[in-house]
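Let us work through a complete example step by step.
Step 1: write down the sequence.
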Amino acid sequence: MRARIYLRASTKEQDSKRAESELLEFASSKNLKVLETYCENYSGTKLERPELNRLLQESQEGEILLIESVDRLSRLSQEDFDTLKLRLSEKRLKLVVMDLPTTYEHFSEGITGSIMAVINNMLIDLMATMARLDQEKRVERIKQGMQKAKMEGKRVGGRAKNQELRETIEKYLRKDMTAEEVSKLAGCGVATVYRVKRELSLISKD
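Step 2: predict the structure and record it as tokens.
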């Protein structure tokens, strides 16, 4: 069977190729022919990722999407994860997760295959939810740490210029302005505004 490997890490400081050799060895042990490895440093909370999009565009029906763990593919909101699953389904890709044996120990057809597919979908959904909750807890801890630092009169966020920009963004966000409006007024990128919104737990659909 033909497979495509997807590797992801959140920041450039992390090694997104860390698990590549292990996944290649795993693929070989399962007689999977790896067509290409897609690797990127991108947040798992983002649905639109360059290499993931390229993988989905280049994939053919019946191929395998091989990942190390579910959180490498998704820390998405439930809505975005449903969208991603729909894209995988439309491509008729089979998701194989190296640390989830039920996704590769049974490739049978018929009733057994259908039952295993249901079980795998439930397990993958559960693991994706756990990955999302872990991310939300992490953001909450960051927020709490920043609030505590502010109360203690400490500088938050590095250099004074960055802190000044952050405070400006926060001021406009509290006026219920859109990210685009704040971006123009603060003189920064929209991505920076959304990053501050996440940290302040103020994200809402504009």
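Step 3: interpret the result. The chain has two domains: 2-133, 155-199.
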